[in-house]
Structures are given as C-alpha cells and as structure tokens.
C-alpha cells in the first residue's frame, strides 16, 4: 500500500548501470579487444548516464536525501527543462543508449542493467512521476518576536472608567482606587 | 577530544576483531584456491588454456561460497533472540556483538557484490580464452564447440552461462534496492527484491552443476607436460630429462578429465535450511490471533495499544513486528514493546506514533474519527477492531540495561519506548537485577510528549522514594524547542516539572557527573534517538576524559 516512488529505484539502477558500462568499456579499450570502438562509445555513454543520474530527485512526501556534492549537477540537469523532468524521455534515452553496448562482450552486462533501469523509468512515467530538483531552501531567519507585535492592541488596558479616574480634588481619600494591575513607583 | 585506547577497545574492540577474522578467512580462502589452480598438477592443461582468468575466477568463487553461507546467518532473528535472551552466550562482550548482526550481513552482501564482479570479469576472460584457445590435443577440456566461437554464444548456450547472467541480474536488482535512501523512503521495494534471495540460491545450485571446468584424474599415469617429453625423448633416447612436470617419465595413457564436483551446496545448504526453518517458525508463531484489549489516544499523534496473545513471553527492550491485513497484507512494521506480560498482568502494550500512511490507516481503523461520532452515543460500544498478527518478540541491545550496575538511557522523542518497558519492569521489582543506578535522559521537541509516560515516571519515582533509594533513578527531561512558555502544571506530575529543563542536554557535563559519582565502574550507555545524539554519545564514550570509568555504548537501530 502507499505510493511507491519507482523513479528513485530506477535512478539507483541507472547510476549503477552507468558505472558498469564505464568499467566494461575501459577494460575493453585497455585490452584492445576486437570492436573496441563499441567500448569507446560505452565509456562515453557510461559517463553521460552517470552525470545525468547523479542528482537525486525530490521526493513527493518526506525528506529527500541528497548525494554528496550534487548541487552543481542538479543545476546542470535542471537547465534542460522538460527534457530531464519527464521520465518518458529518460526511459527512451536509456533504452536507446544501451543497445550498442550489447554488441561487445565486455559491455553486455551494462546494456542489460541499463535496459532494466529504462523499463522501471517507464513504469514511473506511466504512474505520473516527474523529476524535481532538490534546491537548498532559503530558510528565513527565525522571528525572535511573535507576529502579534504587528497588530495593535484591540482592547484598552484594564482600568476603571474616566469618571472614577478624574482627580477629585475635594475628596482625595474617596478618589483612591485599587489598581487592578500592581504598579511600582519608578525609584 | 582524543581517543582513549582503553575506551576504544571496550567499545569497538569486539566487532573489529570479528571483522578482522572475517577478512582473514576470506583472504586465506582466496589465496588457497588461487594457488591450487595456479600450481596444481591436475589443472595444468586447463591453466595453460585459460591463464590467470581460471585462477581468479575459481578463487573468487570460493570467497563467494563463504559469503553466501555467512550472509544468511545474521538474519535468523529468532535464533539470535534466543542466544541473547537466555544468556546462552554468557559473556556480555559476546552478546554485544549480536547488536552488529545487521552490519555483518551488509558486509557479507557487499563482499558478494564485489567478488561477483571479479568472478564475472574473470569468467568473461575465460570465455574468450575457451574460444580462441580451443585445444585440439585435449578436446574434452573445451567448452566452445569450435575455434573462434563467439563468446557471447558460449554464454547463452551453456547452463553455467545462462544461470550466471540470471544471478547477476538478480544481484543487481537486490543491490540497487538496498541503498539507505530506498530503505527509508520505499521500504517495500527493498523488502520484495530482497526476498528474491530464494530464487538466487536456487539458480546458484543450478549454476554450479554445469561442469564446465574439468580436472585431470590420472596424474600418475599421465604426468602433465609429458606429451612434450615424449617428443623430445625420441631424440634423446635413454636419457632422463628433468622437464617441468614431466620428470622424464613417459605417458602411459592419454589424459582423462572429469568435471569438478560442486562444493557450493556444502557451504550453502546448512544456513539456507536454517533460515527457511526460522521463517517457517516465525510464520507459524505469528499465525495465532491477537486480541486487542484497549486502544488509548495520547497527545502528539501517539496511540497506545494493549493486546493479549496466548503463550507470549517477552523481556523488556524487545520489539515485535505487526501485520494488519486490513491495512496491507504484506507490510510488516516493527514496534518496541512498552509493557511486557508479567504474572500479574498478561497484556503487552506498544506505543506507536502516527507518521506515514500505514500507521495513519491503522489509527483510523482502531480509533474512528471522534468528530464523526455523535456525542450522545456512549463511547462504550462494541467496537470491531481489525485483525492483527504479531511476530516476535525479537531481541535488541536495550535488553542489557539490567546487566550493568550503572546505566545511562538516552531517549529522543518516541525512542523512549524501550526504556518505558524497562521502567515498567522496575516498577514490579528492582532487587532481582544487577542494576543499581539508572540515569534516564529524555529529550523531546514538544512538551505534550512527556504525557505519554508521565504516570509511569511519577509512579516509579514515588515507589523508589518510599523504599528509601531515591538515587536509584536520576531523571532529566529536556525540551529542545525553546520558544513559548513550557511547564507541566499538574500537581500530580510535580517530580517531572521540577526535573524539566529547557534546551538541549549538555552531554559532557552529564558524563562528568556520572564519572564522578560512579568511579571505577562500567557504565552502559543506551541510546534510542536521532543520529546526531547517538554520534555525540558514541564519541564521548570513546574519549579519554573519563579515566577510571568505562562507558560502553549500545545503540538501538531500526531498518
């Protein structure tokens, strides 16, 4: 029950597949295997996938945990706008990238793993998820004073009506009244 | 704050020792298998065909055997609870190692992933060598059907190849779903992919039956390398030539090869059967129904649930796992017990905080919205509670509170639940335990949270004062949010209001105080709360300012 965010899992898988593609490509180029051009492509594709998938998206509900140092990647990925927001585009791009990896033995695994990640992105896209960047919230300084200081008092301070307060010079004793709020002299 | 060797050894020594033993075992196994295939006579021809890839792949396979065996053992929770609770493991140091069972499981899992990568890379190299090093001299050794066969075809058409690819895919799914982020946000993905382990083990058993790698059975009759010796002997008749491996003897017969007998099932079947038995036992035990006796709503979104179950025994500090089919059939959620069944009272209770959709739905089922009920109807009506299944109890580090002479329990918010159970048990009788002094520090954000256990704390405080041991329980309550007027105004909670402090606790001063009043003692520090607090406490326990008093750190962790 509850809303599972498939995109988060697809993101982890795509990042791992990018690394696998990269490793397979490096091994094949270093060993100068036959068809090493596919391996060179796999290196470039692996780097691209890793850069695209490194910044984690924001969760719908709850706190999102960033990857270390992902802010600059977030800014880059965000700048592509709807291309990177939409998971249909990502699913299609990953599916297209992974196909040439299948031609070389060293990169076959990376190809299959990226294919699985692309399928899960498709599932996420069908469920209507999209990528939101995690941007640092501008935390407002905590108000040391409460909001009520902005509203003037609605009621007058408690004191007896003006007739009682008016100084009765003829009867000073009778004019005395007890202050409802204790008052101290300014000494 | 510098590290003290004595404190560090007391806190970290045990688990680092186990880690060291595990690393030594892995290294030894790797080197032994590597040397067997590198120097072993029976693998001479195979080694010549495949090169280093053979040795690395087999060595990593033996390490994988060990780790696939060990990875299941820390997850047998009932067995670990039994070991911890019945003090079968008598040394407290050894019991503390059980706290780290999940960490050990993760280490073995990571080792499995790393060595799978090594094993797969080495086997890919082997595929290429099988294909291009196709041997006409020893056709029985070949896995490829002809020279230059596409290695990808070899993978796809042999049993070890296909099962290997399947294993890697399952491992990939399991690994990517196990990151901390996914466990915290979408636990179901982690749980369902991790349950693919049974498919992993079944496919593993099929994988090793492929018989692709063969060893030579008749070394005495056909010493490896003797084919070359035979050819040179034709020129050097009667002379003994010390050729490598040949020793000058002639080949009496052709080399015979036999597939390696698979040994993975020897490693893996024991723990697998143990784990399956444990799951079956837990399923049977949790199938008996649970009666809900009372449901109480507390401030700050906390609900207390009192339940009754036949033959349910628990120690303070243990936790149970709840399953409510009315909310979700497959989700299981752990909750610490806040009250254990005793001889006088058979009910056990939990406090659960409503955060997240499962607990929200459960709260709705247990306590229908009071606004919808009309005030005229009395609350005492037959309420149909949802069916609940309880699995457990399972052990946790907090069970050790009673086994220290002095304990410091630090709770953050709802993390007070294991210690609430401890306090409940102390209310029944404190003499039978080794514990003689308990420092209890409870930090909350909201004043209302203290009302969850205000009655319990005051009752225990009064009882201890009556029995003339007022210094048994040292209570400190902290509110970390400092705005607003905060005080517990009720008269009956006056012990709490006089011990309420605004602001965050100052741990160094607290530790200094504990050290001064408990010289040369071993103090157990138990923390159940946010990471920041537990990290600070851990660092303080390892530091050297408190010579004479050793602080042993025990942390409660979930997920």
Number of strands of chain B: 14
Mean pLDDT, all residues of chain B: 86
Low-confidence stretches of chain A: none
**Alpha-beta classification of chain B:** alpha/beta
Beginning-to-end CA distance, first to last residue of chain B: 31 Å
Largest interface: A-B, 24 and 31 residues
- How many helices of chain A in DSSP terms? 8
Helix content range of chain B: 40-55%
Number of helices of chain B: 19
Unreliably modeled segments of chain B: 237-248
Percent strand of chain B equals 5-15%
Percentage of β-strand residues of chain A? under 5%
Keywords (chain B): Cell junction, Cell membrane, Cytoplasm, Disulfide bond, Endoplasmic reticulum, Glycoprotein, Membrane, NADP, Nucleus, Oxidoreductase, Transmembrane, Transmembrane helix
GO cellular component, one term (chain B): perinuclear region of cytoplasm
Catalytic activity (chain B): NADPH + 2 O2 = 2 superoxide + NADP(+) + H(+); NADPH + O2 + H(+) = H2O2 + NADP(+)
Enzyme class (chain B): oxidoreductase
SSE layout and pairing:
The complex is a heterodimer of chains A (187) and B (559).
Chain A: H1 6-30, H2 36-53, H3 71-78, H4 82-85, H5 87-98, H6 108-126, H7 162-165, H8 172-175
Helix pairs in contact in A: 1-2, 1-6, 5-6
Chain B: H1 5-39, H2 44-50, H3 52-70, H4 77-85, H5 92-97, H6 101-132, H7 151-157, H8 159-176, H9 180-185, H10 187-194, H11 197-207, E1 214-216, H12 226-233, E2 257-259, H13 264-286, E3 291-298, E4 302-308, E5 319-323, E6 333-339, E7 348-353, H14 357-366, E8 389-394, E9 406-412, H15 417-428, E10 437-444, H16 454-466, E11 473-479, H17 494-497, E12 500-502, H18 507-517, E13 522-528, H19 531-542, E14 550-555
Parallel strand pairs in B: 9-10, 9-13, 10-11, 11-12, 13-14
Antiparallel strand pairs in B: 1-2, 3-4, 4-7, 5-6, 5-8, 6-7
């Amino acid at each position: 029950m509850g809303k599972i965010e498939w995109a988060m899992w697809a993101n982890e898988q795509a990042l791992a597949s990018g690394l696998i593609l990269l490793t397979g490509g490096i091994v094949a180029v270093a060993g100068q295997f036959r068809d090493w051009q596919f391996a060179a492509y796999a290196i470039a594709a692996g780097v691209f996938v890793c850069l695209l998938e490194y910044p984690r998206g924001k969760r719908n509900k709850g706190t999102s945990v960033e990857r270390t140092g992902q802010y600059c990647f977030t800014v880059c990925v965000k700048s592509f706008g709807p291309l990177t927001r939409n998971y249909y585009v990502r699913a299609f791009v990953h599916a297209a990238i992974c196909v040439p990896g299948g031609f070389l033995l060293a990169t076959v695994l990376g190809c299959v793993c990226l294919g699985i990640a692309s399928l899960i992105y498709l599932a996420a896209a069908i469920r209507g998820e999209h990528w939101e960047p995690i941007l640092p919230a501008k935390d407002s300084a905590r108000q040391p004073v409460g909001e009520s200081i902005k509203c003037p008092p609605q009621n007058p301070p408690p004191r007896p009506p003006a007739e009682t307060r008016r100084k009765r010079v003829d009867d000073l004793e009778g004019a005395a009244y007890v202050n409802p709020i204790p008052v101290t002299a300014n000494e | 704050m510098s590290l003290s060797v004595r404190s560090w050894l007391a806190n970290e020594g045990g688990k680092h020792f186990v880690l060291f033993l595990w690393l030594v075992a892995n290294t030894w196994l790797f080197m032994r298998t590597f040397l067997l295939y590198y120097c072993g006579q029976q693998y001479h021809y195979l080694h010549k065909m495949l090169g280093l890839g053979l040795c690395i792949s087999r060595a990593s396979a033996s390490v994988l055997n060990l780790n696939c065996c060990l990875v299941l053992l820390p997850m047998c929770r009932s067995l670990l609870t039994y070991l911890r609770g019945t003090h079968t493991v008598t040394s407290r140091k050894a019991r503390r190692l059980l706290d780290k069972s999940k960490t050990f499981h993760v280490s073995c899992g990571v080792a499995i992933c790393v060595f799978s990568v090594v094993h797969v890379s080495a086997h890919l190299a082997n595929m290429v060598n099988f294909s291009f090093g196709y041997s006409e001299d020893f056709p029985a050794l070949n896995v490829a059907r002809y020279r230059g066969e596409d290695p990808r075809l070899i993978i796809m058409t042999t049993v070890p190849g296909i099962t290997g690819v399947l294993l890697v895919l399952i491992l990939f799914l399991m690994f990517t779903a196990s990151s901390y982020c996914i466990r915290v946000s979408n636990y179901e993905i982690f749980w369902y992919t991790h349950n693919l382990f049974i498919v992993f083990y079944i496919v593993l058993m099929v994988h090793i039956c492929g018989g692709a790698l063969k060893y030579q059975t008749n070394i005495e009759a056909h010493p490896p390398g003797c084919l070359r010796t035979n050819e040179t002997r034709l020129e050097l008749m009667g002379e003994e030539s010390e050729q490598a491996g040949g020793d000058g003897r002639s080949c009496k017969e052709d080399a015979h090869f036999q597939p390696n007998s698979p040994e993975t099932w020897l490693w893996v079947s024991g723990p697998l059967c143990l784990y399956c038995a444990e799951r079956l036992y837990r399923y049977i035990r949790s199938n008996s129904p649970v009666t809900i006796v009372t449901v109480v709503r507390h401030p700050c979104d906390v609900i207390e649930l009192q339940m009754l179950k036949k033959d349910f025994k628990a120690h303070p500090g243990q936790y149970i796992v709840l399953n409510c089919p009315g909310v979700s059939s497959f989700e299981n959620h752990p909750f610490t017990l806040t009250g254990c069944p005793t001889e006088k009272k058979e009910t056990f209770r939990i406090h659960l905080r409503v955060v997240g959709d499962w607990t929200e739905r459960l709260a709705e089922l247990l306590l229908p919205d009071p606004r919808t009920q009309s005030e005229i109807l009395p609350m005492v009506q037959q309420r149909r509670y949802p069916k609940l299944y309880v699995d457990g109890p399972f052990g946790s580090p907090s069970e050790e509170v009673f086994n220290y002479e002095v304990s410091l329990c630090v709770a953050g918010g709802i993390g007070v639940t294991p210690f609430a159970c401890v306090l409940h048990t102390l209310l029944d009788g404190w003499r039978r335990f080794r514990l003689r002094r308990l420092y209890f520090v409870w930090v909350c954000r909201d004043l209302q949270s203290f009302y969850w256990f205000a009655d319990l704390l005051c009752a225990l405080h009064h009882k201890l004062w009556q029995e003339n041991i007022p210094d048994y329980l040292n209570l400190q309550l902290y509110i970390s949010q400092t705005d607003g007027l905060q005080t517990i105004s009720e008269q009956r909670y006056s012990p709490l209001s006089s011990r309420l402090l605004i602001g965050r606790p100052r741990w160094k001063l607290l530790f200094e105080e504990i050290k001064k009043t408990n010289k040369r003692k071993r103090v157990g520090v138990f923390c159940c709360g946010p990471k920041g607090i537990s990290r600070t406490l851990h660092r303080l326990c390892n530091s050297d300012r408190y010579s004479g008093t050793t602080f042993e750190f025990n942390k409660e962790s979930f997920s």
